Amino acid sequence: MVEVYKTYKMFINNEFVRSESGRSYKIFDKNGNFLANVPRSSKKDLRDAVKYSKNALKSWNNRSNYNKGQIIYRMAEELENRKYEIINELKKHNIDNPHNEVQKSIDRLIHYAGWTDKYSHILGTVNTVASSFINYSVPEYVGVVACITSPNPPLLSFITQVIPAIVAGNTVVSIINENPLPVLTFAEILKSSDLPPGVINILTQHNNELIDHAVKHFDINLIDYIGNDKQIIDKIAEGSSINVKRIKIQNLDPQDFFDDYKSEGLYWIEKFIEIKTVWIPQSL
């Protein structure tokens, strides 16, 4: 009997695509057993993903915050329905506690679904000024966010990093280097969740070769990296200075992603927004 391996593809603009270069690389488990061929994303794939992300900003932010919450809650429902499939994908990468990771991923999606119509009321404020103006501050999205995702735990780290970014109104290009299979399968859930095209894009890279291109891309507004690889951090710091894009760097241990205090909440949304202040003159 011939074993049929699943074909994994990148997720760009709500479509499953191969790399435009036609390249792929092999994924193995810790024992050296072949798991799958995964697209090796190119610089053009990154440009395409950023283009679609930028185009999606308007359509995503035309959705009501309540509707955004419905979409994210739908992701949780679909993940619950397909949890054993995702658990199996995690097992392929020999991930510890795959059942716990999927359950925590579901819980985290529900958590952020509840924040969509609340965060702006907490982070916004009316300011007292000593003049004839009304002055208030409102949170707004930053733009296109490139998320360089931690490889362990693969699914939970992806959800922890990407979902707060879209809650805040941004669109995302997620770049994955290791343990990509659970996230690429989760993209099938994104496809069926009514998420508008281009809001979340997923690229798989080989040996971190996309990072240099991402940090220098002028249409990426923020680089978000979870990890402690000094070489990657130096690339982010140097490349982002070209157009003075924002950078967010955090170092979390794998177990920290399971800690609600460290890995969810308003702070995770706040890092993906900017505060804009509006002055409205009043007659004396």
Structure description:
By secondary structure, this protein is α/β, with parallel strands linked by helices. It has one domain (10-281): Aldehyde Dehydrogenase, Chain A, domain 1 (3-Layer(aba) Sandwich). The protein has 11 helices and 12 strands. Strands 9-8-7-10-11 form a 5-stranded parallel beta sheet, with helices on both faces. Helix 3 crosses helix 4 (98-115) and helix 4 (98-115) runs parallel beside helix 6 (154-167). The chain is globular.
What descriptive keywords fit this protein?
284 residues, alpha/beta, Aldehyde Dehydrogenase, Chain A, domain 1, 5-stranded parallel β-sheet, 11 helices, 43% helix
What are the SSEs and their pairings?
Layout: E1 10-12, E2 15-17, E3 24-28, E4 34-39, H1 43-62, H2 65-81, H3 83-92, H4 98-115, H5 119-123, E5 125-127, E6 133-141, E7 144-148, H6 154-167, E8 171-176, H7 181-191, E9 200-204, H8 211-216, E10 222-226, H9 230-240, E11 246-250, H10 260-263, H11 266-270, E12 273-281
